[in-house]
Amino acid sequence: xxxxxxxRKLERRENATxxxxxxxxxxxxxxxxxxxxxxxxxxxxxxxxxKQKVKRTYLMTEKQFRKFFDEARKSTGNTxxxxxxxxxxxxxxxxxxxxLAKTRNQARQFVTHGHVRINGRKMDIPSYVVNVKDxxxxxxxxxxxxxxxxxxxxxxxxxxxxxxxxxKAATSGQVLSEPLRENIDKGxxxxxxxELYSK
Length: 199
Fold this sequence. Notes:
The protein is of the alpha+beta class. It has 2 domains: 7-86 and 185-197, Ribosomal protein S4/S9, N-terminal domain (Ribosomal Protein S4 Delta 41, Chain A, domain 1, Orthogonal Bundle); 91-177, RNA-binding S4 domain (Structural Genomics Hypothetical 15.5 Kd Protein In mrcA-pckA Intergenic Region, Chain A, Roll), CATH 3.10.290.10. The protein contains 9 helices and 5 strands. Strands 2-1-3-5-4 form a 5-stranded antiparallel sheet. Helix 2 crosses helix 9 (190-197) and helix 3 packs across helix 4. The relative contact order is 0.14.
């Protein structure tokens, strides 16, 4: 089941920025009326928390997350890098990375509401993995609305950089290549996730 509760609570629990805002840092420590001290975590706890952090960053359920990991494990090459590549190439994340939405949550909403096109065709599945050379664009009618233009202005003010593996025009972009490990969040410790799922 997908989490729909307070976002700041999750960020305080994971001690990390998951949703693009550092507002959670105004209140330190664990969430709750009587937060428990973190203490010294076990190896399992470290691995589990890393998995939860990444899963929540990409707005995935446990079942989806494990499915992506299993697919990465079947592929050749480095499992951890391939896993992160698959997560980054999810359609909702690509829309966010291109700067066509302010947050991943908003990008996911745009996709599920049918506002996103891949090579001119509607795609309303956020977990769809895009391919190299795919053109991703907003529905023309949506792109012309005042509300969406306001979204683009907000993104512009953030001065967010579009990663090297993507290009962006006004309300569209293209996937140039699969992301390299250095193009993906360096704060993610994918080895912990591999160790957790290998038990």
